[in-house]
Structures are given as C-alpha cells and as structure tokens.
Design brief:
mainly beta, 2 helices
Length: 129
C-alpha cells in the first residue's frame, strides 16, 4: 500500500500462461501467451504500465496506460491503450467463424490495429480505437 508518495518500479516477465476472459472476445474464452514482459511504476494508488509487450499464440501486442488501484481490487479502474497484431492463422480462423462485417476492416488490411481497455477490473471494457 504505497501511500507515501514515493515511486516504486518493477519489471517482470511471465512465460507460458493462459488468461481466462470474463467475457469471450471473438468466441475465445481464454488467451494463451508465450511471454508477457512489463515495465511498471507505482505512485500513491496509481499503477503506471510504462510498457507491456505481449507475445502470444494468436496475437502479439503492446499496451501502456494506468490502473488506479481501489479496495477491493476488483474495483480498480483500467485506462490502457495499445496495439494488437494478430497472427495470420488467427485472422484466417476469425474470417471463417464470423461474418465479415462484424470485424473492423483494419484487421484484414493492416498488420496491427489500436485497442483500448477501460472500466473496472471486475468488468473491463474492450474496444478497437
């Protein structure tokens, strides 16, 4: 509980993990990652995600922003943005499973596209910017 106002910094790496999604995204209930590398700083009750690099089985990505910590932690507020680069096999699977007009055209036309994570930790929101 860093109430003193001093900055705390940390870097961490997580390898070979699976994250369960509270709300399925494109029919996926979980996402697997080979590596998540994050550079974090905290002052007062605000966690700054300086950079978070994600290497996954379906997508790669980069996220930064803030998480305002609350009690209980499920009420913490997300304000994160970044880019996602889907692997070609993932795009092909999405194309077969979903109507073409449901996905942003950017997914098919560009190598990566912007995303945003917002809301509370227990009820996060997700959007393509």
């Amino acid at each position: 509980d860093n109430q003193s106002g001093e900055n705390l910094s940390a870097k961490f790496i997580i390898s070979d993990c699976e994250i369960k999604l509270s709300t399925p995204v494109f029919m996926f209930e979980s996402a697997t990652f080979s590596k998540i590398e994050a550079d974090l700083a905290m002052k007062n009750r605000k966690l700054q995600v300086k950079q978070c690099i994600i290497k996954g089985n379906q997508v790669d990505g980069f996220i930064s922003g803030t998480i305002t910590l609350k009690k209980p932690s499920a009420k913490s507020i997300l304000n994160l943005a970044g880019t996602i680069k889907p692997h070609q096999s993932f795009i092909e699977k999405l194309g077969k499973d979903l109507p073409a007009n449901l996905l942003p055209k950017k997914i098919f036309d560009e190598n990566c596209f912007p995303i945003r994570l917002y809301g509370r930790l227990d009820k996060p929101g997700f959007s393509f910017n």
